[in-house]
């Protein structure tokens, strides 16, 4: 959705600033939240990068937002609330994890910003997890730096630093003119990978068990007593089931005897017996 450039005589950067200002004052962009990246604002508003920068500069002059180098632009907190140290940030370094927009004045929502690590470390961590859990298999080609920019909303230098970090760890390698690929693990590394996966699974199971015990609100003795009672009921039910099964089989045998004497079979039973007789005759001929 673009700005109404033809209908509004004001400069485009003023229109863009007005939309952002309204979102801030309406509480849709809350104090301390990151704004969408300059690239996202360009796409959403249909304006140039310089226009986006002029809009942001206007909001900074009004005291509504501030920038942090390498992290992006933020809504300024209310008076008396602490704020991070302010620095001018290049537009390409503004990389919030933008979630979505309903329209130009509704749906402004950014991802949590509680991760203090540099963006390239966060990006490398996300890619590392995809390699470790098999989403990026050995030999698979990684997205290009430009694709990583779009996927994570980061600058080109940030994407390059993330890839460089993974190369230093030996997880990926580059082929000139072809791209970056996931390195094939050695047998030793494969063993370590399976070992750590087993440890992670065991730890997850333990956490689940601990949570189940906590939610039950029962002591070990209470659980042991309930288990003993349940086993007793099961043993009793097993005996009753075996007795009922034996009684049923005996009654079936009695009924079969009576039918043989009276010949009082249903049409279906007669057909089944005739088919059984034919099958036995056929089997007897085959054995000769």
UniProtKB/TrEMBL annotation:
Q: Which PANTHER family match?
A: GNTR-FAMILY TRANSCRIPTIONAL REGULATOR, MANNOSYL-D-GLYCERATE TRANSPORT/METABOLISM SYSTEM REPRESSOR MNGR-RELATED
Query: Start and end of every HTH gntR-type domain?
Result: 10-78, 117-185
An example of a GO molecular function for this protein is: DNA-binding transcription factor activity
Q: Which intervals of the chain are annotated as region Disordered?
A: 77-96, 260-288
Q: Does the keyword ATP-binding apply?
A: no
Q: What is this protein called?
A: Putative GntR family transcriptional regulator
Sorted UniProt keywords: DNA-binding, Transcription, Transcription regulation
